[in-house]
Amino acid sequence: MKKQFLPPLIEITEPDSPAHGIKLIARINDSLNYPNRSYSFYKQDDFLSIVHHWIITPKNKAAYLATEQFDAPLEILPWFIDKLEFFMKSSTQGGLPANKIATDKEKVRGEYIILGRAMDAGNARREGGYILDNIDRKDHHKISTNPQDITFSDSFLFEGGLMDLWKDLAEKYKGDNL
Fold first, then answer.
1. Among candidate residues 32, 40, 39, 36, the one with its CA nearest the CA of residue 127
2. 15 lies in some domain
3. CATH code at 84?
4. Does residue 16 form part of some domain?
C-alpha cells in the first residue's frame, strides 16, 4: 500500500524572496562546518518551514542554488527542545531507554514526528547529530517517495548557535510573538 502524505506546503526555492504570506523568522549559517550553507526558518500560517540552502558551483558549469525543505507544525519548536532534553537524560533518569536511538513517533499537532540520533550528520568530520523526520509529509524533491527529514550536527547545534536560536524561536512561539 502506498503511503498517503499530507498536502504539501509551499516549496521555498528562493530563500531571499519567499512567496507572499511566508515570513522569514530567522536565518543561521553553519559556520563551524559549512560557512556558505544557511538554514532559514519561515512561518507559513501555523507551520514552520526550515530551508537548508547553498550555492553549488560545478566545474565548467553555471552555479546554482540547492535547497532542502523540512515542514512541520509550529509546535515543533518547543517539542524539539523537550525531546532533546529527553535525549540528554539517562534511561534511569527517565530519558530515552537504553539501546534506542530515536523517539517513538509522536503526534505534533496532528503530524507524526520522530527525533533520532544521527551517527553521521553529514559534515566533513562525520560527527553525530540529530535527525528530525516528519513521516506525514513527502520530501519536496519531485522523484522522491520519502518523508521529509532534516539533520543537524552536534557541533552546529551546541557550538554553532542553532540550539540558542531554536530556544529563542520556541520562546517566541510560546509567547505568540513569531
1. 32
2. no
3. 2.30.31
4. no
Select the more confidently predicted residue: 15 or 105.
15
Q: How far apart are CA 39 and CA 50, in angstroms?
A: 7
Residue 110 lies in a domain: yes
**Distance spanning both ends of the chain, measured CA to CA:** 39
Q: Which domain holds residue 83?
A: 22-174
Burial readout 134-161 (b: 16 or more C-beta within 10 A, e: otherwise): bbbbbbbeeeeeebbbbbbbbbbbeebe
For the record, the C-alpha cell of 33 comes out as 562546518
Cα separation values, 130 from 30, 120, 158, Å: 15, 9, 11
Average the pLDDT over 55-63 and give the result.
90
Residue positions counted in the chain: 178
> Does the residue 109 lie in any domain?
yes
Residue 7 or residue 53, greater confidence: 53
pTM above 0.70, yes or no: yes
